[in-house]
Specification:
The strands form two sheets. Strands 4-3-2-5-6-7 form a six-stranded mixed beta sheet. Strands 1-10-9-8 form a four-stranded parallel beta sheet, covered by helices on one side. β8, α5 and β9 form a beta-alpha-beta unit. With 285 residues, the protein is an alpha/beta fold. α2 packs across α3, α5 packs parallel to α6 and α6 packs parallel to α7. The chain has eight helices and ten strands. The longest helix is centred in the C-terminal third of the chain and has 24 residues.
Length: 285
């Protein structure tokens, strides 16, 4: 993200994300990722989907009933370490309660932030930041009651049609992804677009859906890379490096385009050179 202009709103940045970021355990129906949090961040993932179970002030990580052998503090430490090492970056984090129904995780979340990170790590506003404001910050997309810790998850334009009953319904899922990605470039530029390519059902587990959706998504993106379009956040299960790089490539194309536009404007030195060359030609003739 270092090359993204400081004045560019985060809502106009295209970036890869992971659905159920920490779901590495629990069998074929619970597992959504194979890479650790650190590996995901280093690969370019900048949107995290974190689910916590709340029991007596403790926030353990879950995907449904499946405990993910970690707690919320591990996520905060991982993000804080990453942003300290790479201060040009920002990380967005959807945060919600799962497999508990206390509807009161705010206090525990604040406690964990103080214990495992620091208060200034957060972006403390509902407003969409510019890249300059977002650099080095964790932006919590809050999906639980309580005072503001960051932005509200519901303020995003979201396509998350995750119910895919069988593999025969994969094409319906792809249509949902396609339509939302098509709407993103002309949608409200002040609003972050979030498209989930992930899904699951009784007869369709996450990896099987990813194996069928990702080739279509990759081909779709490759066909559009010359168009310099804002697509927003594309959130995936089991993303491979080529797909992640293709998504990041949209942002690089936009940066290159801006740079070329700026370089196309002649400065005083280049004008002097042009005038000098013309004078020499006139004298020669």
């Amino acid at each position: 993200m270092a090359t993204i202009p400081d004045d560019q709103p985060l809502s106009e940045v295209t970036m890869p994300g992971t659905h159920n970021t920490m779901a590495l355990y629990g069998g074929v129906y619970a597992e959504c990722q194979t890479w650790s949090l650190a590996s995901q961040l280093r690969a370019g993932i900048r949107f995290l989907d974190i689910r916590v179970r709340h029991v007596k002030g403790n926030l353990t990580l879950h995907h449904g009933v499946s405990y993910q052998r970690a707690h919320f503090g591990h996520v905060l430490e991982g993000v804080a370490d990453f942003l300290q090492e790479y201060p040009s970056e920002t990380v967005l984090m959807r945060l919600r309660e799962e497999f508990s129904e206390t509807y009161d995780i705010y206090g525990a979340v604040v406690d964990y932030i103080h214990r495992y990170a620091h208060w200034d790590l957060l972006w403390h506003s509902r407003l969409v930041p510019t890249m300059a404001e977002a650099r080095g910050k964790l932006i919590i997309l809050q999906e639980f009651p309580g005072p503001d810790l960051g932005m509200r998850y519901g303020s995003l334009d979201i396509a998350d049609d995750w119910k895919v009953p069988t593999l025969l319904h994969v094409e319906d899922k792809w249509q949902s992804v396609y339509e939302h990605l098509e709407a993103a470039p002309t949608g409200n530029k002040a609003q972050i677009f979030l498209t989930y390519s992930s899904g699951a059902g009784v007869f369709a587990y996450p990896r099987a859906i990813a194996q069928r959706i990702h080739p279509q998504l990759y081909d779709y993106l490759r066909a559009k890379t010359d168009l310099n379009q804002r697509l927003g956040i594309i959130c995936m299960d089991f993303p491979a490096a080529p797909l992640i790089q293709t998504i990041i490539g949209f942002q690089m194309k936009e940066v290159t385009k801006r740079s070329q536009t700026l370089n196309a404007v002649p400065n005083k030195a280049s004008l002097k050179h042009v005038i000098s060359s013309l004078r020499k030609k006139i004298i020669k003739n």
